[in-house]
Write a structure and sequence with these properties.
Number of domains: 2
Radius of gyration: 19 Å
Number of strands: 0
Order of helices and strands: HHHHHHH
Largest sheet: none
Number of helices: 7
Strand content: under 5%
Helix content: 40-55%
Structural class: mainly alpha
Distance between the termini: 32 Å
Shape: elongated
Amino acid sequence: MKYLKMLPSNWSQVTVKDYLRFIELLEFEETDGMLIVEAAFFTFTGFNLSDVNVKPDEVDAIVKRLTFIGEFPKEPETALKFKSMNELSYQEYITFQKLIQGNYVANLHHIAKIFVKGEINEDTISVNDAMACFFLLNQKMNKRLKYSALSLNLKLMKWKLVTYLQKMLQWFGMKDKTNGVGF
């Protein structure tokens, strides 16, 4: 399936810019597992999953490929080197303080750019690189992303369970009384 190749399989393949677009798609809707998959599919391919002709086994492959989204990046590795707080200029420190007062997630790439030694492109910095910066510099971000990942993971697990139970009901010839909305 050509779309599967377009999808990332881990956080190091996701730019912060794409992550922010993905999160934005989820903020305005009540999300369940399939909506999370659809939002991720759209973010990384530019296509609506409902508009492309995919078979059930291909949907399973897509869901499997995107399962990392429900997991928090564990001690991300990065080749980037970061400045300590004492290495920041006065202006960098003030900018950092202003950025952490707002939405941490939305400012992730801007904050990482402040702390990276050397030049980086804010548009291509990966979630892993940005998270490595935060692991070293800001534990507050760690808590928020853990909650976000846990919430997404729980929603994805609920969707998988409901889908499995609906298939089992069909297999046993029983009528699904949930009307497709889950339990």
